[in-house]
């Protein structure tokens, strides 16, 4: 077998006079020198690292080489995107936005009332939350298709956690105070994450765990709506599946056949319209208009029947949002609860809003700045907490309708807010006879889309650990509680990260004939072992968390290879090569481990060689003087060069 080294020219590798002869001889023998990265001061390294962490997208690149006036204009557009698209706005865009705005308003009004009920808040709060926040977002938001308002998951979490500590029926003022305060803290968290560019924190909620969490929450929400669909007056406040089902069958004497017939009928109607729009996206308006049509029809039916067995919303006050700044609660025994609810609902709503915004941005080939979106959503909730609103974000169902209706800009949110304003000022008495059953049917129809069994099946096929994480959060929500289910979801995500960090992959490599490529023996059947060599690839950073494991696993690879050689009576191992191509970082523990491994192998008459360490790894190995013990033939640019050079040095001994 002949291995020819790849010639590499590296102008950044500057040899000193003393090193030039050695370097020349190495070049002539087909072995290239492994270079150190260009020298940088500690401050330069820190600056670059912080820039990569907090500014990976280089948001200020537009400001470079611009005049003062231009920088001022760009600054306005950066913080207020309305100044970017506003001057280009046209009547044609307005026509599209009016149509989409009226369409999502027909969905937002019944959903707003329903989600307020889900949070155990007065229904009018849901309409308030569909008025002020969309106006704020239209000025600060960068997504053209995000439709803002209350969402099911955040409403569920807020209602669950608040109801466990305070009863709205007994202490309505305190309940509202805590809801508005929690909304303020949610907004503060969201805006802070965006301002300090810490959005990567929400990435600890992986898609797999969120999939299970939302599916579990959807099941719980749907079961909770049996109270409205069956006409039950006394129902449990607990959110676990067992107490909910127990409460349903314990109060069978409260079931109302009129409520059941009407509720199930409208639920079937809503699900049918949803299915039609799913199969034929051009008919999106059918599912969008269905909730409002259902509200109107059910209200007329109840008004005509005058039935006392069917529970209704009752009186809703007319008028725009009353200020709630005086209701923010910053003292007392419940302040910790408000902060806790704010953090949880803030993270959940932020995750949903960013994901929805990026989804539709990708479909229309434009970019959404995640950190700017966090600031926009955060300020929107902070303003909302002072205007009788609870936590809001971008809703997937409303945003999908907005997109399909042809929305061009965030003006569709303004149209929706204007429609809600007209409703608040003039149409509130019409909701007096709206039955609770229709709100339950609307909620079930909305949340049932969160149960994505096909995505769960894909997880099983692709990544079993992700599937376990999904199931853990799903059953955690169902049988323990929504907050603890979320905690389980985060815990499983962090455990998965730790598992990958502390137990990284290692592979034994073989030579693929006819190439200079070395690949995993277990992956490529054509790969063959190189006699007298054991080549091990490490596929992770070399950190304190995995250094002991990597040392033990390397020694195990050596033992297993020696046992295989003994059985097959092949040539004994003389050299172990560590392919460090995928080792992106190393710390002092990793360096000490490599040095210790070299000493252990040296006592066993085995040579340890390092191949292709990346720039910062090479720099740390050099600064620690760890390379001095390896000598000139202990470090190579590629595995092929290492094999060729070391093999040639053994030939005279043969």
UniProtKB/TrEMBL annotation:
<feature type="transmembrane region" description="Helical">
    <location>
        <begin position="173"/>
        <end position="196"/>
    </location>
</feature>
<dbReference type="InterPro" id="IPR011547">
    <property type="entry name" value="SLC26A/SulP_dom"/>
</dbReference>
<feature type="transmembrane region" description="Helical">
    <location>
        <begin position="409"/>
        <end position="431"/>
    </location>
</feature>
<keyword id="KW-0813">Transport</keyword>
<dbReference type="Pfam" id="PF01740">
    <property type="entry name" value="STAS"/>
</dbReference>
<keyword id="KW-0472">Membrane</keyword>
<dbReference type="GO" id="GO:0055085">
    <property type="term" value="P:transmembrane transport"/>
</dbReference>
<dbReference type="GO" id="GO:0022857">
    <property type="term" value="F:transmembrane transporter activity"/>
</dbReference>
<feature type="transmembrane region" description="Helical">
    <location>
        <begin position="284"/>
        <end position="305"/>
    </location>
</feature>
<protein>
    <submittedName>
        <fullName>Sulfate transporter 3.4</fullName>
    </submittedName>
</protein>
<feature type="transmembrane region" description="Helical">
    <location>
        <begin position="147"/>
        <end position="167"/>
    </location>
</feature>
<feature type="transmembrane region" description="Helical">
    <location>
        <begin position="374"/>
        <end position="397"/>
    </location>
</feature>
<feature type="domain" description="STAS">
    <location>
        <begin position="523"/>
        <end position="646"/>
    </location>
</feature>
<dbReference type="GO" id="GO:0005886">
    <property type="term" value="C:plasma membrane"/>
</dbReference>
<dbReference type="InterPro" id="IPR036513">
    <property type="entry name" value="STAS_dom_sf"/>
</dbReference>
<dbReference type="GO" id="GO:0008271">
    <property type="term" value="F:secondary active sulfate transmembrane transporter activity"/>
</dbReference>
<feature type="transmembrane region" description="Helical">
    <location>
        <begin position="467"/>
        <end position="495"/>
    </location>
</feature>
<dbReference type="Pfam" id="PF00916">
    <property type="entry name" value="Sulfate_transp"/>
</dbReference>
<feature type="transmembrane region" description="Helical">
    <location>
        <begin position="72"/>
        <end position="91"/>
    </location>
</feature>
<feature type="transmembrane region" description="Helical">
    <location>
        <begin position="255"/>
        <end position="272"/>
    </location>
</feature>
<feature type="transmembrane region" description="Helical">
    <location>
        <begin position="437"/>
        <end position="455"/>
    </location>
</feature>
<dbReference type="InterPro" id="IPR018045">
    <property type="entry name" value="S04_transporter_CS"/>
</dbReference>
<dbReference type="InterPro" id="IPR002645">
    <property type="entry name" value="STAS_dom"/>
</dbReference>
<keyword id="KW-0812">Transmembrane</keyword>
<dbReference type="InterPro" id="IPR001902">
    <property type="entry name" value="SLC26A/SulP_fam"/>
</dbReference>
<keyword id="KW-1133">Transmembrane helix</keyword>
<feature type="transmembrane region" description="Helical">
    <location>
        <begin position="208"/>
        <end position="226"/>
    </location>
</feature>
<feature type="transmembrane region" description="Helical">
    <location>
        <begin position="121"/>
        <end position="140"/>
    </location>
</feature>
